[in-house]
């Protein structure tokens, strides 16, 4: 093979490599846009993986006032929280006569003091969920639902807490239903995955009922979400001054 032929062959290889790199570059950009572009979503329901709505309007409303952070805590942090919580509930039986009739099959307590490791988790929750100028309630609500326990549709009283509620889900995933208080047919189901953190505020806090579905009704987008014992660690902010007077 002559020298000129070698030069031509080498030049051809360089050109082919450049073409290949260019194709791969644009292929990557195309695939990225295809994955992330809203135009490729079938409807609004698929834009938020952890939510499903009865219609797009109610879904959009809820998504503005409800946030979920998956894997907010690690497995070891979950274990740490439960080591401190379990001794409180160990000798108690699950109850079925909650003071406002909203909860079935539950144990609950309010806890102000946590060990050092768990205090850091609570502080991390509060830092993410509440504005810096917002006063949070000192008592953290801990709610233990049995495998067959559930929470009926209700709106938390404005006399006892403010406009933000935030909680960590421990031990089990569950389905939270948020329904418009004046039109129960308009609702959003939220998949509360184990070790996730939710933040509920604004309209969702005041104009929507919230409930944890029974084990027999625990479905998300048609797929069963198997319930087990579920413990939630819940923080709230203080009620507005004008609402405190009604207590």
Automatic annotation (TrEMBL):
**Source organism of the structure:** Larinioides sclopetarius
What taxonomic ancestry is recorded? Eukaryota, Metazoa, Ecdysozoa, Arthropoda, Chelicerata
> According to its UniProt record, which cofactors does this protein need?
Fe(2+)
| GO BP of this protein | DNA damage response; fatty acid metabolic process
Against InterPro entries, the record matches this protein to:
AlkB-like_sf, ALKBH7-like
What is the protein name for this chain? Uncharacterized protein
GO cellular component, alphabetical, reads: mitochondrial matrix
Q: Which SUPFAM superfamilies match?
A: Clavaminate synthase-like
């Amino acid at each position: 093979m002559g020298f000129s032929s070698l030069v031509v062959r080498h030049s051809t290889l360089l050109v082919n490599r450049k073409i290949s790199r260019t194709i791969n570059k644009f292929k990557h950009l195309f695939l990225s846009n295809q994955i992330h572009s809203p135009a490729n979503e079938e409807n609004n329901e698929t834009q938020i993986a952890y939510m499903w709505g009865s219609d797009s309007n109610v879904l959009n409303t809820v998504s503005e006032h409800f946030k979920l952070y998956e894997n907010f805590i690690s497995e070891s942090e979950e274990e740490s929280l439960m080591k401190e919580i379990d001794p409180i509930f160990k000798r108690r039986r699950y109850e079925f006569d909650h003071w406002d009739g909203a909860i079935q099959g539950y144990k609950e307590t309010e806890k102000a003091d946590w060990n050092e490791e768990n205090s850091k988790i609570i502080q991390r929750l509060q830092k993410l969920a509440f504005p810096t100028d917002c006063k949070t309630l000192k008592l953290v609500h801990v709610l233990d639902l049995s495998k067959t326990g559930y929470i009926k549709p209700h709106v938390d009283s404005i006399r006892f807490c403010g406009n933000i509620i935030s909680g960590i889900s421990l031990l089990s995933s569950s389905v939270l239903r948020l329904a418009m208080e004046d039109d129960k047919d308009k609702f959003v189901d939220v998949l509360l995955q184990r070790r996730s953190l939710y933040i509920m505020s604004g309209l969702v806090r005041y104009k929507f009922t919230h409930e944890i579905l029974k084990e027999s009704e625990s479905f998300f987008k048609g797929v069963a979400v198997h319930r087990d014992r579920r413990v939630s660690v819940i923080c709230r902010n203080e009620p507005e001054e004008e609402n405190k007077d009604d207590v």
